[in-house]
Amino acid sequence: EVQLVESGGGLVKPGSSLKLSCVASGFTFSSYGMHWIRQAPKKGLEWIALIYYDSSNKYYADSVKGRFTISRDNSKNTLYLEMNSLRSEDTAMYYCAKKLPFAYWGQGTLVTVSS
Amino acid sequence: DIVMTQTPSSQAVSAGEKVTMSCKSSQSLLYSENKKNYLAWYQQKPGQSPKLLISWASTRESGVPDRFIGSGSGTDFTLTISSVQAEDLAVYYCEQYYDTPYTFGAGTKLELK
User: Fold this and answer.
1) A12-61, pLDDT tens digit by residue?
2) Residues of B in contact with A60 (CB under 8 A)
3) How far is B7 from chain A (nearest CA, A)?
4) Residues contacting residue A75 through CB under 8 Å, at least 6 positions apart
5) Which one, A32, A47, A100, B112, has the greatest CB density within 10 A?
């Protein structure tokens, strides 16, 4: 059974940094591209980043480009999202997802950016 | 970026009713080489992660009831629920995976009449 478990969210101040993790199980992690998708409170879904199975390519939404970095460690079956220069508008539930379209989602980790 | 426009934003329904919702994309999602539409539909219930219902515009995922029907091609797509059940009350999102940035519609919320 595919499982994706995010962690690392929390309450942080504007301008600070945070690193999210997503631990995968139930499939060959190193064979799949992985994504981060977020959802602001009471809002819709926003795709924010993609990393290829071998980290050879990475793509970002304009809203996070230059501030967020997606990475992975295939030896640990773990996906990461490093978030810098956080803004109030980055407040959201952050989900990792596998496959296109997004057939598998984690339960999400909540990031709140507030002074 | 491909803009996804969903209508209506909300709809009040009664159990057993037939429901249709629309999703339009700002450019064609039909890839000429494989004749596939890169359009998916998701269902999200309160407090839950989204669930993939339909991929390739009309292919139902395993375990999804056959009352959920996806149709359309190019830029115009529809999700139909042939006979709404109480458990179908949720927000429905369409999403294009034709090109990055992958984009979602704003959602259609199904509420009880």
Assistant:
1) 999 999 999 999 999 999 999 999 999 999 999 999 999 999 999 999 99
2) 101
3) 14
4) none
5) A47
